[in-house]
Amino acid sequence: MSRFTAIILIAFAVVSVYSQDIDKYEQLGEKGFKRGDYAAAIENYSRVIDLSSRLDQHSNNHKNDFTAETSAEIANISAIDPRTAAGLVNRGRAYFANGEPEKAVNDYNRAIAMFPAMTSAFLCRGIAYVGLNKYDMALDDFERAIKLDKNDIHGYIGRGIALLKRGDNTAAMSDFNYAVELKSKDPLVFYYRGEAKRLIGDIDGALKDFEHAIKLDSKHGQGYLGKGLIEIRRGSYESSISDITKAMELGVRTALAFANRGLAYKALGKTTEAEADFQKAIEMDESIATEIAAATSKITSPN
Q1: CA 166 to CA 134: how far, in whole Å?
Q2: Cβ(288)–Cβ(281) below 8 Å
Q3: Distance (Å, rounded) from C-alpha 167 to C-alpha 157?
């Protein structure tokens, strides 16, 4: 048996100890994320990071068992388990969704240090920087993501969001339109362009994009959320509640969704349902409490 074959067998033996558990916790983490249980997602992704890091350490320890020549042969398979970096990105997503953007950025930084060409880490860190109002840093990350993969729509979407937040609506719409050109059958690009149109006041254009996203994919939860937000603005509260509830059923259980469904309930005089949604929204993102207070002050409930 060659030295290289022996090394491969050792690697496989180590993987057999942890690999099934890593797969299990990855799946549990994603399930938790999709149902909005971000604490559970963070816990399970932390286990992924811990277990895959043990594989990293085990591989590095075994490097000492071989000659320099043999160690060079296996450098690419024993350095870092990619699942460690993926676990960090996924846990960062959960931290961000849980209202902890600083912790998210820390995880993305660690992932990028491991894999400097990891597009998803730059994209996610860019979004976290947007959440922290660090728009120039966000734009830098989206630019780097686009350079790594110019055909990935997420780089253009992210850059468009950052530009929109910075007040450069024309450049932002250019990015959203280009993303639509790249992936005209992807409902995600229509949702984000619709959201951009909603924010700049093009309500009819926004609704058209949200409806097109749903047409492309009847289970596109974000499309239903966007449509529900437009209906609130138009005073169609029953329709808004129906669409936002549909979005939640499809996994879009965000603070924004709960807050706006709460506003629709409030406008219909359904105070109990409204307060429950407001409480859930604030639990997910404390900063949204000010926006809820401002919005509810403008609502006149029916007698």
Answers
A1: 10
A2: yes
A3: 15
How far, in Å, CA of 155 to CA of 142, rounded?
A: 5
267 and 291 Cβ atoms separated by less than 8 Å: no
Quote the crossing angle between the two packed helices 169-182 and 153-165, to the nearest 10°.
160
CA angle 192, 198, 201 (to 5 degrees): 145
CATH code where residue 51 lies: 1.25.40.10
Domain count, the chain: 2
pLDDT at residue 113 is higher than 90: yes
Q: Which of 40-44, 173-177, 294-298 has the lowest mean pLDDT?
A: 294-298
**AA identity, residue 115:** F
Average pLDDT over residues 139-150: 97
- Write out the residue range of the structural domain in which residue 70 sits: 1-116
Q: Measure the CA–CA gap between 175 and 142, rounded to whole angstroms.
A: 11
List, in order, residues 6 or more apart from 1 with CB less than 8 Å away.
none
132 in any annotated domain: no
CA distance 93 to 132: 14
Q: Among 249, 301, 297, 296, which residue's Cα sits nearest to residue 35? A: 249
Residue 254 near residue 97 (C-beta atoms within 8 A) = yes
Instruction: Out of 101, 116, 131, pick the residue that ends a domain.
Output: 116
State the burial class of residue 26 (Cβ atoms within 10 Å of its Cβ: 0-12, 13-18, 19+). Answer: buried
Mean pLDDT value across the chain: 87
Q: Which two tokens stand for residue 9?
A: 């067998």
Q: What are 64-93's pLDDT values in tens digits?
A: 544 444 444 444 444 567 899 999 999 999
Last residue of a domain, one of 116, 142, 174: 116
C-alpha to C-alpha distance for 187 and 195, rounded to whole angstroms: 12
In whole angstroms, what is the distance from residue 278 CA to residue 263 CA?
A: 8
Q: What's the whole-number mean pLDDT along residues 247-265? A: 95
Tell me the C-alpha distance between 254 and 273, whole Å.
16
Tell how far CA 275 is from the center of its chain.
27
